[in-house]
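**Polypeptide and fold**
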Amino acid sequence: MTFRIASLLPWRVFVVPTSLAPGEAADLLARTMGETRVFRGTRIDAAHFEISRVIDYRNSFLPVIHVRFEPGPEGALVRVDMRLNLAILIFSFIWMTIATLGGVVCVVQVIAHGHPQALIGLILPLFGALLIGGGFAYEAARAETLLREMFPARL
C-alpha cells in the first residue's frame, strides 16, 4: 500500500461491492454490532447505519462512519463515508486557521526583516495538520480494512 497525501484528509469515501443482497448485508452489519466489539452505532433506517469502531484507547480523531446499502448489479453496494466528529472538525478548523495565520505572520517577518528564526512559526500549522490527518488516517484505514473484510466480494 503506497502513501498518498490525500489519505491525511479528514474524510474518506469508498464503495465495497458484495455478493450479498442489500438486506442481508445490512443484517450482517447489525449482527456484527450486536455480537462483537468491532463496531458500535445506530441503525438509522433499513439501509443506513451510523457507526464507529470500538477502541480500547482514546482518539478524538476516530471517524464517524456512515454506511449505506444499495442494490447493485450482482448484489449490494456498500457505500461508506467516513468523517471527523463535527465538534472535532469545528475545533480543528478554528485551531488550524489561527495557527496558519500565525505562520503567515512569521513568513512575512522573514521576508520583510530577514529574521530566519521566525520560520519556527511554521511548525505549529504543520504539527496540527499531521496530528489531525495522521490520527484520522490511522483509524480510517483500520475501519476500512475491517469493513472490506466483513462483506464477501463478488465472485
